[in-house]
Amino acid sequence: MNILVLNGSPKGERSNTMQLTHAFLEGLGSGHSTQILELQTLTIKGCRGCFACWKATPGQCVIKDDMALVLEKLRSADLVIFSFPLYYFGVPGVMKHMIDRQLPNVLPFMEERSDGVGSGSHRARYDMSGKKYVIISTCGFWSAKGNYDAVLGMFDHICGKDNYETILCGQGELFSVPELSGRTGAYLESVRRAGAEYLSGGIREQTRAQLSELLYPKEVFEEMADASWGVSRESGECEPESLSFTRQMAALYNKDSYDGKDRVLEMCYTDLGQTYQIRLTRSGSEVITDGSLRATTRIETPWQVWKDIAAGRIGGTEALAKHLYTVKGDFSLMIRWDDFFGTHKAAPVTERTDSRLKKPLMAAMIALWMTLWIAVSIDTFIGALVTIGVCAALPLLLIRHEQTVYDKLSASLVAGAALLALGTGDGSLASDAGYLAFGLLWLVSAFTREPLCAAYVKYKYGGQKALDNPLFVSTNRILAAAWGGLYVLLAPAAFLMQHAGLTAASLIVCNAVPLLMGLFTVWFEGWYPAHVAQG
Ligand SMILES: Cc1cc2nc3c(=O)[nH]c(=O)nc-3n(C[C@H](O)[C@H](O)[C@H](O)COP(=O)(O)O)c2cc1C
Does the Cβ of 148 fall within 6 Å of ligand 1? Predict the structure, then answer.
């Protein structure tokens, strides 16, 4: 297929819209002959209205410039893609010139239109039947809705009503902000899909719905857009770049993630000597420049490092682990950073389906072991049978949850300990063996890519991608090793105490120590990442 792209953005290849157009072309696949005409680099003068192309020199324009080439390309293309930004609710001047200069391609005679558009038309001078048209455009307001009436009205006349496809996207300037490439990249992926579907029967409804989703909610976008000019709303004067950047960051705050705690995030750009505060509350965010609030979390960072993190050139936790910046105060903000400042509700559909994924349930795994220890201590024989029954029922108990490898290993180990109780008739031995197996399970997991506790709590920290977070993994590794070590020591201790006749003491130790360890875990989860973050 011969594809002709007419790029009507004065910015040429730096055009936001062309990012969409390139994605669409990628979706169309290889094997086509594609030509992109950068209209702003061609000489296309305005039509003189002399009608010479209809009368004196039929089909030939008297202006000798690059339009002859465009007309020829238009005639031979199978698919014409008009790619342009919305300018004053119309097409940019260079594209309008190009459209006006198409007069030589039509005949002068008056005709009725079959599609009922307008009050007349001119038939094509050449065979233009079977040609396909796609309009791709971005605009600056928060939504494309209602802005393209004039443009679409014009293309109804040029291409024929319902005879062309459109991809129209608001918030177009966001495509040139690397910090937001996560969201814009997802949109471009939908455009790519639209390209592939266009050739095989048409763009599907689901893809159309994704293309009409906002990149960001209206208020978030407008706040970001207003802040991006780097000009004070009050004085109209230029503001420091770091302040405008901080305002844009604050605009991204997702108030739906508010957890009942008001926060003040203090951004200290160490090399610039500038500090700004962002108040984060239930109702939204606000940037404070006079430092009048008491910070709950303070980030001390060189300006460039923070910009690199925001643009995704370096990971936030990786930079933290390398001590490129430090964090003081409440660390929970950092742990939930993606919730607070990540992609908003207008996120791509794929992320929404992720949230419906089954999640594992640590309580079910722990319940297996508790059943063994409690049931067998009450009655060795019946307790062991009950334990085996619970292990067998585990897939049913977890029907709404993901089963981790630790669930499956626990079920086998617990059932094994229960069989030991049945075989020996010794409930204490089975319990002690259980302590040892439980300890070893934790301990060995500490040396794997996904320590035991990480397998269950990673969903609170972004799912699988939490495992790429060195701070998350090291926190869980230490905790897994601590729990493992504790139970490995608890097994012989309980055994010795029981054989020394200290059954009551053994019971107290076996219950009190894990309780204390639980309290330690809660404290350590908060303390350790914050300790590393303080450098
Ligand atoms: C002169 C001018 C006029 C514009 N008019 C509109 C407009 O009427 N409506 C709108 O939503 N955006 C308008 N915009 C914003 C652009 O459409 C928007 O920035 C677009 O993403 C630029 O795309 P490009 O990078 O492909 O040129 C205008 C921009 C300029 C420079």
Answer: no
Query: Total domain count for the chain?
Result: 3
Does residue 117 sit within a domain? Answer: yes
pLDDT for res 34? 98
Q: How far apart are the C-alpha atoms of 251 and 126, rounded to whole Å? A: 53
pLDDT (0 to 100) of residue 367: 92
CB atoms within 10 A of CB 313: 12
- Domain end, chosen from 333, 354, 375, is at 354
Residues 13 and 129 in one domain: yes
CA of 172 to the centre of ligand 1 (A): 8
Q: Are residues 296 and 374 in the same domain?
A: no
Cβ-defined contacts of 61-66 (< 8 Å, 24+): 61/101, 61/103, 61/104, 63/101, 66/42
Per-residue pLDDT reduced to its tens digit, 395-426: 998 998 999 999 999 999 999 999 999 999 99
**Residue bearing the CA closest to ligand 1, atom 19:** 140
21 lines ligand 1 (CB under 6 A): no
Task: Flag whether 526 is in a domain.
Answer: yes
What distance in angstroms lies between residue 12's CA and the mean position of ligand 1's atoms?
14
pLDDT (tens digit per residue) in 457-493: 888 776 787 787 788 899 999 999 999 999 999 999 9
Q: Does any ligand 1 atom lie closer than 6 A to the CB of residue 9?
A: yes
* Domain around 406: 362-533
160 lines ligand 1 (CB under 6 A): no
Same domain, 44 and 192: yes
- Report, as an integer, the average pLDDT of 357-364: 86
Ligand 1 and 172: CB distance under 6 A: yes
Provide CB contacts within 8 A for 22, sequence distance 6+.
none
